[in-house]
Amino acid sequence: MQNNSNSESGIIDVLPDIKISAEPEDLICYGFDASGIESRPSAVAWPKNTEEVVRVMRYAFDNEISVTPRGAGTGMTGGSIPLNGAIVLSLEKMNKLVELDTNNLNVVVEPGIINGRLQRDIEHLGFFYPPDPASMNFCTIGGNAANNAGGPRALKYGVTRDYVMEIEAVLPDGNVITTGVRTTKGVVGYDLTRLLTGSEGTLAVITKLRLRILPLPEDVITLLAMFDSLEASGSAVAKITASKIIPRTLEFMDAGTIAAVENFKPVGIPRNVEALLLIELDGHPSAITKQAEKIVEICEALNADVKMAEDEAARNKLWEARRSISPALYHLNPTKINEDIVVPRDKIPDILKKLRGLSEESGIQIVNFGHAGDGNIHVNIMADKNDAEKYQKAQSLVREIFDMTLSLGGTISGEHGIGITKAPYLGMEIKKHELELMKGIKNLFDPKNILNPGKIFI
């Protein structure tokens, strides 16, 4: 592949009617994401439609120039970082809700639409799009699809992949493909739609998506269960899921997370609480009332103090606190290492004990929160990059955490993807032959390796 250092002048000259910039301020702004990694692109392009994406990709393919697709840059693993002086293809201007099909319960959207905006646009009409990442008010649907994003409601409703019905995408050579079906069922050929969902922008540039939506649930009950023991909270998760109740959310926060949130955006949680669960049920009022009573019984048997949100304002306040965890932890330490491991639900008490032991043994604070209902724990190793020795020690803990996770039958990433930061650990989970198949798929889609190179595979 050629050096991309002079690509910006060529593409601006050849495609003058497409908004493209090589101004230093734009290159800086589009050279980092939520991972904290920085690498300047050679140019930034803002296509307005599929045809403009096609033209950018054809130029890049013909000139063997790297291209990195980008949504809102909220990813945690460096997936939208432009390596090798790549052109950043920002899809933020392709942000329309194209079609709402209420008869067949689906919508067609462009990739740059913000998740939270889509939620609001359809909820006031009585419909519901379940995937709800913590960054939902900032992240784009295209980025969600590229990373197969989840969120608190994944416990009951599943992740982005479960809602993507059809994808329009541009291949690295500029050809346009449409995958999937608009029907509920369809088994004609290989499922390229599921392949593209979660491919982190390495196979094709998503330009349109058809998404399944649901009727808005009749009612919601939100419970806050506060525990004086970390182990008790983990046991509560296992007992709730074993009781045949599936809440729509079952979120976990440990003492370190609670302290950080109370310092950043107080909601009145007592400082002596060791762990809490934020539990939400939705459905028919009488059914979820009975389920809530059963959950209260389970938690109180483990010495929890359980409170119910009295109204929508109280519920929103609790969720505002939950969604502010990440910025709250950055206030605690601006250079935390954030991993998103997943273990089987009944192994949550085991992984929490192991993480606490690792923290005590290493002398490095490890703060945990996440989607306990589906076993997805966000592990935050709190280390300051300015203390080189301590930060290096903190980085060495990542492999130990992944070893623990895999030994319990888990996976090293639940929703953040692999990107740059987890690429060195991919071989811990994926075996050699499976990895070679994946690399073969990448080569088939992208023989010149121009689309988001350096991600997933080292």
Q: What are the salient characteristics of this protein?
A:
single chain; 458 residues; alpha+beta; Uridine Diphospho-n-acetylenolpyruvylglucosamine Reductase, domain 2; Uridine Diphospho-n-acetylenolpyruvylglucosamine Reductase, domain 3; Alpha-Beta Plaits; 4 domains; seven-stranded antiparallel sheet; 16 helices; 18 strands; globular
Structural account:
- With 458 residues, this protein is an alpha+beta fold.
- The protein folds into four domains: 7-90, Uridine Diphospho-n-acetylenolpyruvylglucosamine Reductase, domain 2; 97-215, Uridine Diphospho-n-acetylenolpyruvylglucosamine Reductase, domain 3; 217-311, Alpha-Beta Plaits; 333-448, Alpha-Beta Plaits, CATH 3.30.70.
- The chain is built from 16 helices and 18 strands.
- The protein has helices spanning 7-14, 24-29, 50-63, 115-123, 141-147, 154-157, 192-196, 230-242, 255-264, 285-301, 312-323, 325-332, 348-362, 388-407, 426-429, 432-445, and strands spanning 20-21, 43-45, 67-70, 87-90, 97-101, 106-109, 127-128, 164-170, 176-180, 205-212, 214-215, 219-227, 249-254, 275-283, 305-308, 337-342, 366-371, 376-381.
- The strands form four sheets. A seven-stranded antiparallel β-sheet has the order 15-12-14-13-17-18-16. Strands 5-6-10-8-9 form a five-stranded antiparallel β-sheet. A four-stranded mixed β-sheet has the order 1-2-4-3, with helices on one face.
- α8 runs antiparallel to α13, α9 packs across α12 and α13 runs antiparallel to α14 (388-407).
- The radius of gyration is 22 Å and the shape is globular.
- The model has no long low-confidence stretch (mean pLDDT 94).
